[in-house]
Design brief:
3 domains; MgtE N-terminal fold; Tetracycline Repressor, domain 2; homodimer; mainly alpha; 23 helices; two-stranded antiparallel sheet; 5% strand; CBS-domain; disordered N terminus; 69% helix
């Protein structure tokens, strides 16, 4: 690894170079297929192999995260050519780094033997991460190859639900006894070849394995060697529990600037640790999946997934959207007589629905964020409600005035303008009330308020906006 | 700090307790105002003070991040009461932790003297973070109180744009010479009282200050004391440049699991470091601001901002939305004659616009993500285009069939059903083409494709969907 200025472009350059070599390789393959002849074949075969050798060399030099990035950026056929060139002893690490959808395509094209070999190079907590994607027989083989202690770890790691601290945990920690001196610890460490990555602290445990304190590595270095460990260790610290929500652990890491934290069971026994790099990956995945579901995608989609797979990935939200659109359509259907008499209503109604949908989504974004941070209490919920309602009335008067003027200028009908303004105020009011009420209600029902509340508010403001506008028009204009 | 199970609820409990004490305090204040009398006043004043003393004790025990959280969760009036109770020597740290909007409300209520005192407790890189919010005179006073070296640091830190590596940098690093042994380094460290937080490595520099390598603290501990530093240090490592994009540094931290990284200038001189906790805060802020702008909010809004301020924060996107709604409305206006003749068109048209908007947003979510990861190259862009078009045609036939059937069942008009199906296929095709083209074009123009592309695609699919459906209907039905 060199300067980042070199590294970032390097990854892109590598991607460019990989694509180039693949294209040459394909060209030669085509030639060979078109003009078969023993001699020519020999020559072409040589050239062809040269490209692949160069490609392999390039791939060997890449960090696993960068190799994963290149695999994700290639169409399926080329991806598999590249995957075949990657050394067997790196396959495990790279499988961990690629996205779920891409991992599936790679695993589908590996045989049982290759999969077992790839999994066996990994730590037990990493095997647990891959496990859901591996065939049953492969997992059985892997399991058999482990030591009894490792089997126990794997069993533990796999027993925790996906969004729990247990799923983020690894077993690469250094624990020390509480009755020794700093000198003894230093001597013990010097006998190791290397320390596990992201080790910023050692875990001080009793002979029975109960955690007593933390000894930051940096404190170890500034302490007098004769000091007993107990007198320099931290006694007050964050302990994570394997069943806790991963989200809570992540926010503890952010809040208190942690690099690692111990995981202890109910009895206070040290069973593992969580490190900041895993937490950062978790946060990235969470925000990615939030963004995908906000866009109406079920899950992370392989950029080069088959058409059929992509269609299925996008199906659910389109179906939900279709139902809400049908409802809105029937609401309009109720007022077909009014529209037939005053066709301007048809042209103006999307304005009301659109603006109130946008405004409702603004309110919901605020409230969902505050709920996620736990900032909404019984005491301040009423204040928030009052604030959102005031904002919406003010916005309604301002924007309602503008759209009313617009309607008047185009249709020269001041009553129509007034109805527009009134409808805007009422539907922004509806949007504000629902923008607060929908996420609060979802939260009370124990559902995730971030999921689906935007679809729900848009459905409400669409149908509601049409109903309010066409209803007022029917009352006052027709 | 104790167990996380205690800590998380503790923050909520603390918020609850703070609110409770504040309410008691307000009650007493009201009593005092209603029944003024020298003796009673004395008694009440005592009770009143007792509550505040208890509150102050509670606040003193909180981690700055937790105090910030409580300030953010309180309405303005109560927030200022709490802020007054916070010890002056903690104000600086807490100002750093609160959100921009809340920081503004706190700074507005501090006098010049308090602000200077708060800023003076901070490191120079932290002062640089606060600087944009501080009045000019305060910054001048703070500047005067610094040592020449610190002034230089502050000047450097403030010279970098907000989204650069320079803005994430701190100066809390330990650098060592390259001609010493591990033993000397260990002795040097032992003379320190403590090491800076998040120090996972020391920076090895030449006498002129040029970076030569990194010495991971963990390697220091396992090395023989007699080894020269140069033979155990890392020679290949990530160097950040202060002018680089913060986003690139963040992705290097994620990719390569870094805890800290050196920042060097053009000449290769070490000028600072970036640590993982700052990177994590940066990522959180970025995703927050993405989410806010996706929801149509200009910036992070104080939950208890004044109505007027909130209205302004939400104004821009509503205005953009209004313009696109006006355009859609005029598109419909073109077909008023057709609608007057077949009023069912008015009820059916939102279905076409809604579904194609949703589908276009799905495509754009995929493309924006792939662009952000740099996964789209000239070679694969065409493949992606082809895939998205196939997906949209297939979706168009499926969903178009369903909506066509819906139209036929309600209006008993099979021609209308066919027009619905045809319009759905065409507008999903439009959505797919624009869903790929809009972000790619924004990227080519040097704009952020994440910003505004969703608004743009919705505007296109709305107006386009109405135009296609009403146009087809006018051609074939009227």
């Amino acid at each position: 690894m060199a300067n980042l200025e070199e590294i970032r472009p390097n990854v892109h350059d590598s991607l460019g170079r990989v694509t180039e070599l693949l294209q040459k390789h394909e060209l030669v393959e085509n030639l060979v297929q078109r003009q078969p002849g023993p001699r020519q074949e020999l020559v072409e075969n040589l050239v062809h192999k040269l490209h692949l050798v160069e490609l392999q060399k390039l791939l060997d030099a890449l960090h696993p995260a960068d190799a994963a990035y290149i695999l994700e950026s290639l169409p399926l056929e080329q991806r598999l050519v590249v995957w075949d060139l990657i050394k067997a002893d790196r396959e495990g690490e790279i499988l961990l780094e690629v996205s779920d959808a891409v991992r599936e395509t790679l695993i589908e094209n590996m045989d049982e033997h290759e999969l077992v070999a790839a999994a066996e190079q990994l730590d037990t907590d990493e095997i647990a991460d891959l496990a859901p994607d591996l065939p049953r027989e492969v997992m059985q083989d892997v399991f058999r190859s482990l030591s009894p202690e490792e089997r126990e770890q794997l069993r533990a790691a796999m027993s925790f639900p996906e969004d729990s601290v247990g799923a983020l945990m690894d077993f690469d920690m250094i624990s020390i006894r509480d009755d020794v001196s700093v000198e003894v610890v230093l001597r013990y460490l010097r006998r190791l070849d290397e320390m596990p990555e992201q080790t910023d602290q050692l875990f001080v445990v009793s002979p029975a394995g109960h955690i007593r304190g933390l000894l930051p590595v940096n404190r170890l270095l500034v302490s007098d060697p004769d000091t007993p460990v107990v007198s320099v260790m931290e006694r007050e610290f964050i302990k994570l529990h394997p069943q806790e929500k991963a989200q809570d652990a992540a926010s503890a890491f952010e809040r208190y600037d942690l690099v690692s934290a111990p995981v202890v069971d109910d009895a206070g026994k040290l069973i593992g640790r969580v490190t900041v790099n895993v937490v950062m990956d978790y946060i990235r995945e969470e925000t990615d999946s939030d963004r995908l579901s906000a866009g109406g995608l079920l899950e992370d989609e392989d950029l080069f997934a088959s058409v059929w797979r992509s269609v299925r990935n996008r199906w659910t939200w389109l179906a939900v959207n279709l139902v809400t659109a049908f409802i809105a359509s029937r609401v309009i259907g109720l007022f077909e007589n009014s529209i037939a008499q005053l066709v301007a209503l048809a042209a103006l109604m999307p304005i009301i629905a659109g603006i109130s949908g946008n405004s409702g989504n603004q309110t919901i974004t605020m409230i969902v964020r505050a709920l996620a941070l736990g900032q909404i209490t019984g005491a301040n919920a009423r204040k928030l409600f009052a604030k959102e309602i005031s904002v919406s009335v003010l916005n309604g008067l301002i924007w309602g005035g503008i759209v009313g003027l617009f309607a008047f200028l185009i249709y020269h009908n001041w009553q129509l303008g007034l109805v527009m303004t009134g409808a805007m105020v009422l539907s922004l009011l509806l949007a504000a009330i629902m923008g607060v009420a929908v996420p609060l209600t979802l939260q009370k029902l124990g559902r995730d308020p971030a999921l689906g509340s935007s679809v729900l508010i848009t459905a409400i403001t669409d149908s509601g906006g049409f109903f309010i506008f066409l209803g007022l028009a029917t009352l006052f204009l027709v």
